[in-house]
Amino acid sequence: MRIVLDRARCAGIGICESFAPTVFEVDDNGELVVSSTEVPEGALEEVTAAVEGCPALALGLEP
Fold it and tell me: N or C: which end of the chain has fewer CB within 10 A?
């Protein structure tokens, strides 16, 4: 699975980081940093929760 990020929609709130901190991080400038475009092994559940919990609908998953 591949993580898709629409930077124009991202508000930098950090909800994704709270669900999957090993994959998502909001830096000091409020920019989202994604550790990998591929979902790391064993992290699909957390990444899916982050995608579903994004209030800006800035995250998605592709096969």
Answer: C
Which amino acid type is present at position 47?
A: V
Say what the pTM is. Answer: 0.92
Q: What is the pLDDT of residues 11-34, one digit of tens each?
A: 999 999 999 999 999 999 999 999
Q: How far is CA 60 from CA 12, 28, 29, in A?
A: 15, 23, 22
> Is 2:61 a contact under the CB 8 Å cutoff?
yes
Report which DSSP code applies to 38.
B
Q: Which two tokens mark 43?
A: 């992290």
- Residue 4, CA distances (Å) to 1, 63 in order: 10, 10
Whole-number Å distance between alpha carbons of 37 and 28: 21
Q: How far apart are CA 42 and CA 1, in angstroms?
A: 12
